[in-house]
Amino acid sequence: MEQDKRQRIYKTIMLMILVAVITFIATTVLIYNKIGDSNKTKYVIVGNQDGKGSMDEISANLTRLKGVIDKYYLNEYDEEDLNEWAIKGYVAGLGDEYSEYITPKEYEDFSQDIYGSFIGIGIYFGKDVNNNMLIVSTIENSAAEKAGLKGGDLIKKVDDYVVTEESETSELSNKIKGQEGTTVKLEVLRGEETLTFEIVRENVKLHYIKSEVLENNIGYIKIVSFDENTASEFKVKLEELLSKNIKGLILDLRNNGGGIVQEATQIADYFLDKDKVIISTRDKNGKENVTKAEENKLTDVSLVLLTNGYTASSSEILASALKENDRAKIIGEKTYGKGVIQNVYRLLNGGALKLTTQEYYTAGGNKINEIGVEPTEEVKLPEDANEYNVEREQDTQLQRAIEILK
């Protein structure tokens, strides 16, 4: 039961990346490492193997299956779909919830998110613990935000398509996206009220950082996701707040499911003394790589982080680095506990393989995977609060952070 819950929660976390997933691997494939040091290109050759489970044996079994299908199967089928699902099943056999095979179309959607814009309405959504399609948040200044959609809304219908527990997030994403200037109609459930929105699709520019000055001259920055250029965007927002002479800063990592690790470590660098340990990673051979702060910190301003059970992956790296270097207090709830890193390897057919390759450890040498990061002070939201779109007057976690910084 607990494992099922983790998997469902992770569906929501991974939808902080709008669409993610995976296609065809030939017997010998050239793979390009897309995530990592952008100045380095890594190529890997995956070839035939001998013995039990060899590619020849797999190919023979699939050929036999195809023969039976061709002879007896009642309906027509798409051979490309069979190929893609065969590869998806092969990777799923690893039993790793984070490793997956991505089709060319799915990789195109994945890249749109990572690289900053797409045609749609501007929402992050995923499945909640009850398999409802949940809007986690709207993108700032997007058509969805302007129309009035909110985090916590449950999507029940897209045009004439009725959303069920069996609906796939990738399928729903494709129905919501479309040509620029066209209209899509969404029916959502907000509490007990059913609402309908007609929204014109547009080019959505993704904004990963939100900032403002709160009461008592306290700065506030929310990081939605760690994607390309998040760190540079964060630096601009931070310097704007510092120019206003803020006396403290709240960094909100709630509902942030992670993203590119290097973006999170760069943000940690802004707050830590040079040579302080941020994170260490170990691969399958035990090879350790330690990431340290490389630059002089930008500020000594007092810092409080907000976390919850949906704070995961890169967010946990940032939170643990600042906590264990005594640079920040954490208010809220224990984080999700995703302490492994995936690399995305491009395939010649346009798809990709997302594969778990390393486990990471905190600055103090502690594991995060399936453990999480404990807050300095646990503070829960009221039971009737919408954790995806909590109202300020109900946000006990934010209120406590402000109290500390006063």
What does this structure look like?
The protein has three domains: 2-112, no CATH class; 119-205, PDZ domain (Pdz3 Domain), CATH 2.30.42; 209-405, 2-enoyl-CoA Hydratase, Chain A, domain 1, CATH 3.90.226.10. It is globular. The longest helix has 18 residues, at 55-72. The chain starts with a helix and ends with a helix. The strands form four sheets. Strands 1, 2, 3, 15, 16, 19 and 20 form a seven-stranded antiparallel beta sheet that branches. Strands 5, 6, 7, 8, 9 and 10 form a six-stranded antiparallel beta sheet that branches. It has helices at residues 2-14, 55-72, 79-92, 104-114, 143-147, 169-176, 230-243, 261-269, 314-324, 396-405, and strands at 29-33, 43-46, 100-102, 117-120, 123-127, 133-138, 154-158, 161-162, 183-190, 193-200, 202-205, 209-214, 218-223, 248-252, 277-282, 288-292, 302-307, 329-332, 340-346, 352-361, 377-378. Helix 7 packs parallel to helix 8 and helix 8 (261-269) packs parallel to helix 9 (314-324). It is of the alpha+beta class and 406 residues long. The protein contains ten helices and 21 strands.
